[in-house]
Write a structure and sequence with these properties.
The protein is α+β, with helices and mostly antiparallel strands. It is built from nine helices and seven strands. Helix 8 packs across helix 9. The termini are far apart. The mean pLDDT is 96.
Length: 208
């Protein structure tokens, strides 16, 4: 049996000593509802990361659509349409058994992000689905989030990452394509070249 790591942080007291006290603004920015200014951030965001937990583990999944696709129903309720995807529905499976949910809203060109924590239910009410239809195609369902905590995240992570800067010119050569990944993981059962060639058209045709 290996010896415990003497440098591991295992107690809250150690964390408190390492990081010190929380600055007052970091506490004051957290509220239990959607403030009008926080609403503006949600309505400007075309991309949100959805975090959930369930018996099979944790999940963090991306959601994206034109800015404002997450509707602010009222100061304590958000509506998130579920579009077509790969049908794994990991986050939805989690929500069925554990309603806890966390959302991270990103806004291109803006360093600050918005964090929302709450509890969610999944609805297939016809009127609700019709409300979020695009090109006559409704979402599969709508996740209704009961808001419990809201606060903005400072811009340091985005600044350090250079997230909104133009991408490096060689990024395509450094990052493997979906076809290459599937080819490697399936031992050649998926042909990388054919998969990658067909992928752009397939994605365009199945966005909604």
């Amino acid at each position: 049996m290996s010896e415990p790591d003497p440098h591991a942080i295992t107690r809250l007291e150690q964390l408190d000593a390492l990081f010190g006290s929380v600055a007052a603004p970091s506490l004051r920015k957290e509220i239990d509802h959607i403030h009008p200014l926080y609403r503006q951030m949600i309505e400007a965001s075309p991309f949100v990361v959805v975090a959930t937990a369930g018996p099979d583990g944790l999940d963090a999944s991306p959601r994206g659509d034109p800015a404002g696709f997450v509707a602010v129903e009222d100061e304590r309720t958000l509506l998130l349409p579920e579009r077509r995807g790969n049908n794994r529905v990991d986050s939805l499976r989690n929500l069925v058994v554990d309603p806890r949910i966390a959302l991270l809203f990103l806004i291109p060109g803006v360093g600050e992000m918005l964090r929302v924590n709450g509890r969610a239910t999944i609805s297939v009410a016809p009127a609700l689905l019709a409300r979020f239809a695009v090109g006559g195609k409704p979402p599969r369902c709508v996740t209704m989030v009961c808001v419990e905590r809201v606060y903005f995240q400072c811009a340091r992570a985005v600044q350090r990452a250079g997230l909104w800067r133009p991408p490096p010119t060689d990024v395509g050569a450094r990052v493997p394509s979906p076809g290459r990944i599937l080819d490697a993981l399936t031992g050649g059962e998926v042909d990388a070249q054919n998969y990658d060639a067909a992928l752009p058209a397939r994605q365009r045709e199945t966005l909604y």
